[in-house]
Amino acid sequence: MSPPLLEVEDLRVRYGAVEAVHGVSFAVNAGEVTTLIGANGAGKSSTLAALSGLVPAGGRIRFDGRDIAGAPPHAIVRAGIVQVPEGREILAQMTVEENLLMGLRGRARSDLDSAYERFPILGERRALLAGSLSGGEQQMLAIARALLARPRLLLLDEPSLGLAPLIVKRVFDTLADLRRQGITMLLVEQNALRALRLADRAYVMELGKLVMRGTGQDLLGDEGVARTYLGG
Amino acid sequence: MAEQLYNAIFVGSIYALFAVGFALVFSVLDILNLAHPVVFMLGAFVALFFMSTFGAPAALAAVAAFAVTGVFGIFLDRVAFAPLRRRGAPPLSAMISSLGFAIVVIRLMELRYGPDLVSYPAGSLPQAILQIGDARLDGLRLLIIGLAIILMAALTYVVRVTQLGRDIRALAENPRAARLLGVDVDRAIAATFFISSGLGGVAGALLGFAYNAIYPQMGTPYELKAFTVMVVGGMGSLPGAVLGAYILGIGEIAALVFLPAEFAELRDALAFGLLFLVLVIRPRGLLGHRVADRA
């Protein structure tokens, strides 16, 4: 069996005197969807921020056999780890197409056409300012923009946050599509039910630590998980 | 009248070149670079150095002024701003740091060249008078206006169309998103300072050519004007800075033309009064959002 694409060992993230992530270890296998679920403030987003190089972190992060801990964010993107951040962080004052070009960064424009095929609404609105899109369209734009960077590992931070149920379904349909195409994903999500249904592998995070791990199906069937995160 | 309008456009072009660089740094980093007048002055002296030492023609000296002051801008960032940025210092600290840096450089230049006016080597500046109707226009100034417009068009192209320009705009709007999209922040900031300072330096050289008189403090009067022009244009908006610069240029010359001679001292008061009026009517400035508004 080939080694995991991403190996995280004893990851620690601190903000001043407060440690938000206390020595977390996990792995993401190529071609799989891995999810981190947990309550607000559990340290999920801090973990993703550390993987993207946005916050300094202790411990070891190996991506495709290379140590990337301490690398600047642009080097991490170049290595193939691309994040769709919480709140989407689209560039509101740029057009939809300019946002996509930020992901493309000079690669072949044919990729841009493929993005418009996958997300026709973005093609229709390519000349509009991205800030004028609806929340759901902005989420599609954030995902499309990240895909144009040709990620080998796609990090998704709360992609369903603040979206209407119908739009949430569309976002998860898109993620399921990406999974079928073999895109490796690490998904942080408060909508635990949808995340676990999609995931091959899942971790539960509480107060900065991983407290449970298993396949998505295992955790869906776990009584404790059901009680705490699935409202069951 | 035509001569005065011509002068107004000339002065406005110099203000615009000065102010767009000032506005560019502000839009990306939220700091007022009070060392910008220094690059303006250095541009004029770099041109002098190339012309008097190597006998370079004025056009080549202007290119040298752009390149040298551009690189100097990167140096300025590394010395006066980057250390503060790394420690998360407030914008006010960066402003004072750049002011300190500016004073040191100006004093060093005074030590080398003295505080008085210095001229370019005799015969080194092209001279031509254009006669249009009754108006006698200085041909050199026409060249300078043309060059300023070309430079501003080139800046617009870089900022709007190239990947570097998109990186700079992304950084201005949302630094976190820019990082996540793979923008090399250090490189984008260095490019911002290169472009901003290069334009400021070339503006200084061009003004030096037009007046054939340069001195180490020559940038100082432009600082307040550039700041005003930027606020009136809309903080950090590049087209706004250009528009504000031409309004100020035209306002100043109009004051000179229409005020009786004994009120000539009121020239600045009238020009700034006009800009004040614009702000009262439109507090966000004429084109009230930046290169990219921070969300």
Key features of this structure:
heterodimer, A: alpha/beta, 6-stranded mixed sheet, 10 helices, 10 strands, globular, B: 295 residues, mainly alpha, two-stranded antiparallel ribbon, 2 strands, 3% strand, disordered C terminus
List the helices and strands and how they pair.
The complex is a heterodimer of chains A (232) and B (295).
Chain A: E1 6-15, E2 18-28, E3 33-38, H1 44-51, E4 57-63, E5 66-67, H2 73-79, E6 81-84, H3 96-104, H4 110-118, H5 120-124, H6 135-148, E7 153-157, H7 165-180, E8 185-188, H8 192-198, E9 201-206, E10 209-215, H9 216-220, H10 223-229
Chain B: H1 2-29, H2 36-54, H3 58-86, H4 91-113, E1 129-132, E2 135-138, H5 139-161, H6 163-173, H7 175-180, H8 185-211, H9 220-233, H10 238-258, H11 267-281
Antiparallel strand pairs in B: 1-2
What does this structure look like?
The complex is a heterodimer of chains A (232) and B (295). Chain A has 232 residues and is α/β, with parallel strands linked by helices. Chain A has helices at 44-51, 73-79, 96-104, 110-118, 120-124, 135-148, 165-180, 192-198, 216-220, 223-229, and strands at 6-15, 18-28, 33-38, 57-63, 66-67, 81-84, 153-157, 185-188, 201-206, 209-215. In chain A, the strands form 2 sheets. Chain A has a 6-stranded mixed β-sheet with strand order 6-7-8-3-9-10, sandwiched between helices. In chain A, strand 9 (201-206) and strand 10 form a beta hairpin. In chain B, a hairpin with a 2-residue loop joins strand 1 (129-132) and strand 2. In chain B, strands 1-2 form a two-stranded antiparallel ribbon. The relative contact order of chain B is 0.20. Chain B contains 11 helices and 2 strands. Chain B has one domain. With 295 residues, chain B is mainly alpha-helical. The A-B interface holds A 52-54, 72-74, 77-78, 82-83, 85, 89-94, 98, 101-103, 105-106, 131, 145, 149 and B 163, 166-167, 169-170, 173-174, 176-177, 179-185, 289, 292-293, 295.
